[in-house]
Amino acid sequence: MVSSIIDLARxxxxxxxxxEPPPPSAGQIDxxxxxxxxxxxxxxxxxxxxxxxxxxxxxCLAAALTGAGRAAARRGxxxxxxxPRLRQLGLDRREPGLVAVPAIDLARINAxxxxxxxxxxxxxxxxxxxxxxxxxxxxxxxxxxxxLVIPATGxxxxxxxxxxxxxxxxxxxxxxxxxxxxxxxxxxxxxxxPDTEFVVFRGGEGLRDQVAVIIGKPDYSGPVTxxxxxxxxxxxxxxxxxxxxxxxxxxxxxxxxxxGGGVLLYIDxxxxxxxxxxxxxxxxxxxxxxxxxxxxxxxxxxxxxxxxDFAADMLRKLGVARVRIMTNNPVKIAALENAGIDVVSDQRxxxxxxxxxxxxxxxxxxxxxxxxxxDL
Length: 376
Hints:
The chain is an alpha/beta fold. Helix content is 38%, strand content 20%.
């Protein structure tokens, strides 16, 4: 009786949900815990075969450097900064670098990490792989990409700091993308697109949820209309006039509903992959005159931190092999093609031009090659 119930349950599961992802390794679990520690403002230990360092995110440095933390940070402390941030500080540099911190001067550290108009005030040393791992951990945690690092000692371990291996941090994104799986699906009728299903995946960028919105009844035997849409809280939900994201989202849904259906991948990569808090920091800089890319550079970010390789896996798990992509971004087209998806055509998705977003749109066109009209 029990076996027949199990067989019946297995038969009722959709084909895309029958393959369980591999369980995370112990090293991957350590990385996930380290991400949570960094986001909570607590330091972690990174280690490789040759060395160990304690990593303090600059974003929460004042709270972390109390008591024993401040005493430990006096021993060989260095500030690691990204190449975009070092260029903002006046260096012509294409790789991250280390700045000596002989004394814990929070005002100096914050100025070097994110101060507008700050200039480098000490020699910059080349980082080792363990320092690059620290920056990757900060990016995974969606915090400011600047860290105070110090050599780890036995006392650090006795303080109960969580430790993770650099190799696990460096390979985390790829490892978790391979574990992408469907965790839930249900019909969700939308205004203008009542025949819609939401399919929730877990994986891709860490363990965050990604959503495939299946609109209408797309024919998976031929090219399927597809859009890769990065989440934008301000534009998608609140109708911000600073971008065209909300218009693109709603236009795409209506178009798919009226033209044979399609798949809209709603990807949790807010702020071009920088995270919501950093996006709002960049908005404050834009209000002071910086364009969208220069504002990100002040904070230490490159033009775009997003990755779209796992989007191709989401499509494959839904049975999509050939697509007509709705996008203005040639990077998305190339990413799907490089991941083995057959892109048969591409179509522009144009939102409203407002007094608040024209500079933003022009920057995307001129600095990142977005396929937008010249008249902005």
